[in-house]
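Intended use. Records like the one below are meant for learning the mapping from a protein sequence to its folded structure. Do not use them to infer anything beyond what is encoded.
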Amino acid sequence: MFAITALTLLIYIQAPGYSIVDLCNQFNDLNSKVRDNSISKGNAQKELKNIIPMIRKAYYENKGKDYSKTEWVFPLHGYHANSIGGIKGNGYILGGYNYFDGNKHTGHPAQDIFINDKNQDCQDDNTKKAVNVLSVTGGIVVATENRWETNSKLRGGIYIWIYNATDNSLMYYAHLKEIFVKPGDFVKPADIIGTVGRTGLNAFAKRSPTHLHISLLVFQDNLPQPLNIYNYLLSCKTK
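Structure written out for the chain above:
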């Protein structure tokens, strides 16, 4: 992949045959560089400020729909808010989190949702089946990682980022076993996007119960800021 620049993105948006998939792949590439700490924070911020408005514009140009929060769906099929870890959402710890710190970030600006999996085989103990991860919001998949090795230091493991144009936000789903989407895919609330797994540096450890890690980042001045998703999860529809 070549480096993202404002000029490059403008050429994409203006060129005949332009595809929103191109922009999503560019975001995916940028997100990987941020994750791997292979780009300076300053350059990453500039590139993200350029690409997010273009993805949002392209989403609507490609007949993307708005979905209200009343349509949001709890992210684990067959589970409810009582599966959220901690007490009343106290698993959310801002701790100086900064998206641009990548894999070296601090804090835990997220909620962990645990499944019934005492033997840690990534299957529900009652159904003996994998637990499907559902898209909470509508939007478009902008970044994924579908491979993870047990010796990897990557903390999120197999993950998905979905951009929600309605609220100008990103939803992050991590520690998955497998994913069923790719950058450029449009999703609606309740679409199956993957299954719960144990991938990621800490999630793989025996001490960690099997869970989904989910974060919400809202763009302010086109830069992502964490927001506690706990109260939204309490009011989500369940499937």
